[in-house]
């Protein structure tokens, strides 16, 4: 009987060890998820700062562009230019418009990529927070199994992305239309 008692005690010890391992696994999973949440928060702060810098840069570039185009437009309306020199402001306007368009396209593309990354990071952060919350409330989500699937909430809102894309490229179209208007005006006003 002592052998059977010893085996029963050993079995109980193994069971207690399994509970201890499960508890340690839950704690380490919780702490790694919390670390991931903190890392995502830091990444999101950096991404938001980068987006803010891109927006500021785009605004400054647009202001410079419209000032230069305004100077060109005012110069062609001055009486000093003759019809035979219409090509000078035309070329200046075209060159300014081309350089601005290239720069604006690059900034817009980078802005859209950064914004999409931030949207995805925010969705991941919210997902991690839900995992932590469910772990705190229920012990372990899904009966001790880790949740790794991507929920519908994690996917970035396509309406917001389309709206952001529309406004970004609408800005690009307005600049191109302004360049075309100034270039046509270079010829029509003087000739």
Explain what the structure shows.
This is Transmembrane protein. Keywords: Membrane, Transmembrane, Transmembrane helix. This protein is an all-alpha fold and 191 residues long. 84% of the residues lie in helices and 0% in strands. α1 runs antiparallel to α2 and α2 packs antiparallel against α3. The termini are far apart.
The shape, in one word, is rod-shaped
Oligomer state equals single chain
The proportion of residues forming helix, as a percent range, comes to over 70%
- Rounded mean pLDDT is 74
Transmembrane segments: 169-190
Biased composition (Low complexity): 20-31
Biased composition (Basic and acidic residues): 32-44
Region (Disordered): 1-44
What's this entry about, in short?
Keywords: Membrane, Transmembrane, Transmembrane helix. The protein has 191 residues and is mostly helical.
